[in-house]
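Encode chain A's predicted structure.
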Amino acid sequence: MTTRIIAVANQKGGVGKTTTTVNLAACLTVRKQHILLVDLDPQANATSGIGVEPREGASVYSPLLGEAALEDFIIPTEYRRLDLVPAELDLAGAEVDIARMDNYLHRLRDALRPLVESNRYDYIMLDCPPSLGIITMNAMTAADGLLIPIQCEYFALEGLSIMVRLIRQLRESGANPHLAIDGIIMTMYDGRTNLAQQVVHEVVTHFSHLVYETLIPRTVRLSEAPSYGQPIIVYDRNCTGAVAYLKLAQEFIQRNKQRVADEANPPQEPPASDEQPLSEEPSPPPAEPSQIAEEQPAPEEQPPPEEHTP
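Encoded structure for chain A:
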């Protein structure tokens, strides 16, 4: 399978986007997948959440400007099969610098192209900032698929509708005509509340097959893990949050395998045929005009009118 770029994005903050990116990436490595995590958020939460200290000049800033190769900024983590391109606070300045450049929406796609062509990783996961700025737009333009984490709260559908409109605009404009939603991940789920159940029901009603069956619960352990610079499967492998993300990783892999199979064997319509079914007799050839005139039946004679006796 060729390298696939997955952007994890939502313009709303606090929906578990970075938590999902870090923990899904870590759980995918347990499933023998090679992952490159690219932190595009100037807050660098994904970087620190995986145990790496943000450093000045170590982010994707220079590759976005075309001043360096992205491969030079990849660093290994202490976790097998997981590499990282860290973020830093100065990455916020890229919003201004990239906007002045040609092809400003395709800067990240161009920087990632050599890595995609090398097929070094199974997935490149992009942790986007919680906004719809230039960096997020670059990530969505470069991505093959989009994962949208949604908190099980009241405004979930409103934020999701904005993302759907943005995807449609990127496709129709030609910036990324193949961009599609890979899946919607419900996060911070608390089954004890009616609100969480109602939100999940509404999202499933509107987006059905796009919603992952795995629900990410709201747990204290998931909140604690980033402060120790560890993914949840390292911090507490047996907690409900770790179990949920391991199930999510398995579901993610299965969905992508099914997508590859569908692309390799698209459904085919039966070819149109000019031959008539065997059960039907062939139609006779059209008759000549003279034959039509000769074969027309003579008009039936009308019976004489009955006489009425006085």
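The longest strand covers residues 145-151.
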